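Hi U.,

Before I forget, here's the chain from the pilot set. I'm dumping it here mostly so it's searchable later in email.
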Amino acid sequence: MRDIGKWQIAIDGPAGAGKSTVAKELARRLGILYLDTGAMYRALTYKALREGVSVEDEKAITALAKSIHIEFTADQRVRCDGEDVTAEIRTPEVSSKVSVVAAYPQVRRHMLELQRAEAVRGGVVMDGRDIGTQVLPNADLKLFLTADPLERARRRWLELKQAGKDLSLEEVADDLTERDRRDTERETAPLEPAKDAILLDTTSLSIETIIERIIAMVRGEVR
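Structure:
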């Protein structure tokens, strides 16, 4: 069996399925790198909004993607051009625009190069929407997390509420529905499970149960 410390684990799925929470804790327990690829697109979206660049301007967004520097710190903070943007990239404003930015083919190609460069350094858990299909097609383990749409909306609503964002559950649900549509219908790397991905419905599962199940998969105890 391959050294777990060198494993590449791909976790895909729609917003609110629990990808980031699961991926962070899984990486911590396995002692390998966690890379939130969605945060890269969010950082780009945040930068565009801050600098007044229209997210509808594909050429300008692509140029911006090639000029900014995004990095992840050891304590899982996200920095963009030297600025800590960990909180800023999770605002409703960014969330409502990130799917537009992430749909641009040239932007995705550039981010893909950066993501793969990080992966070759050693063991990694990556979460996003095209990790198993595009970024890490040869990953040791591919997972596709999903959950009931209403449960996904409730989770995201609670996250935003805890962050002090005053949005209704209905508004959050509508936003997730639109993001799902954009992610699944885009021409370049649409959201879909890899053919060899393991589907995991997290609707009624605790984070601890999900983590334990995945670790068992890594150890070959269950499939």
